[in-house]
Input
Amino acid sequence: MPRNRKLGRPTAHRNAMLRGMVTLLLENGQIKTTLARAKEVRSMTEKMITLGKKNTLASRRAALAYITKEDVVTKLFSEIAPRYATRQGGYTQIFKLGARRGDAAEMAIVKLLVEEKVEEKKPAAKKAPAKKKAEAAPAEEAAPKKTTTRKKKEEAPAEEAAAPAEEAPATEENA
Output
């Protein structure tokens, strides 16, 4: 839950700053900022993604009221929110970077999670063991074929090595 950090700014300035940072995060996928700001941006970004998952006219208008660019709202509803359709929150990550040089403020990167790759790997892992059992018998039959092919390849270089040895004396006889 957000603690409503004041971030050393008047209310209007703070809200405008957070709106701009949320818009940039949704537009670019990640932003670099101070840790306190990152925690506030994370909270508001997750609320916007939840609005995008509802995909109603009212939720689109609520997102347009907060996000400062219309094309980012379109991207939110068409690309970002469907990516997290099965996920129940936790759409962002915060990575701490350490102290900023100059004022020693704790810096962080806020990133949107990449959900697509995780979903593709999980179903493949479940299906693979079932296929291995079905393919186990044909694999055993195919294994001897592979070994015979390798023997032929091993024999072929031996024959080629013997052939140049025979050819070498033949060239000496001609000379």
